[in-house]
Amino acid sequence: MSVDLKKTASNGHERMLSSEEQQALINEVRRLIGPLSGKASIYCSDASIARHLRARNWNVKKAVKMLKQTLKWRAEYKPEEIRWEDVAQEAETGKIYRTDYVDKHGRTVLVMRPSRQNSKSIKGQVKYLVYCMENAILNLPPQQEQMVWLIDFQGFNLSHISVRVTRETAHVLQDQYPERLGLAILYNPPKFFEPFFTMVKPLLEPKTYNKVKFVYADDNNTKKIMEDVFDLDHLESAFGGKDDTGFDINKYAERMKEDDKKIPSFWTRENSPSSVPVAPQSLDSIKLDSDSDPSDNEKRESSPGSDPDLDPGMDTEITNHNHENVLVNQGDGSAGLDNMH
Q1: Domain 81-263 class, CATH top level
Q2: How large a percentage of the chain has pLDDT more than 70?
């Protein structure tokens, strides 16, 4: 089997593998992780393992470490247990919401409006972002793994900028939801935002940074991105589309409550990802240091979210999750794998 090489963000080359080679690496990761039970078992589908492998350029050792860290985070943070009532206050202004349409590739769309920030709690904002990510994933159609972020900069000003929130958001997105973002469109960002985005670039993995697209309503070249990605009949008028409906918090709350009802059945359905006949281990028994190496530790120390001064509960003026990270990755060879976990 041949392995092709293609440019990537980390070291100049990204491994391109056949489906057989990918499956062999997935199996190896599963063997190293060991048998799991409960929600950890459901989360570790082939699709999920493949996303962690892609995020680490198919390096098994690094993918295993990343996956273990994700499992530990999920066991402690319990994102699948967040419900609408827990975050409804954060959602009131429509600063983040899932649209009722998808893009031309079937990807779930999250709209973000940082100027509608209504909270100074980083902890609350991150919790709502996690809820929105989980909801977007829950609503992905079969054979689609990624989502689109549409970030509207109308009314955005300097008071909405926070490196701390950007850092924490980047950490959650890149480390806990690898390869989930397909594209981020920054729509009509003001001129002062561009140097800020350049400043926070080191917080983003290059592979993620390269998926961000700047679109301006008065630029025909960038406007074409919207036409290529969306059906303009369904796209909101704020982004150059023809839908003038607007955001209604009451209708949105009902949608989210209905979605919440789907969550328990997903996380209790049967799944047998491991063929190794050994007693399954709990998340608490996973040793995170077993696959680390000096280069990984260095990256962790300088990675988003590892700032010792970052207090998740601190109050500060915030931007939202606008400038984080995002990607255009429509053909990643993962079609056919379970989209949710």
Answers
A1: alpha beta
A2: 74
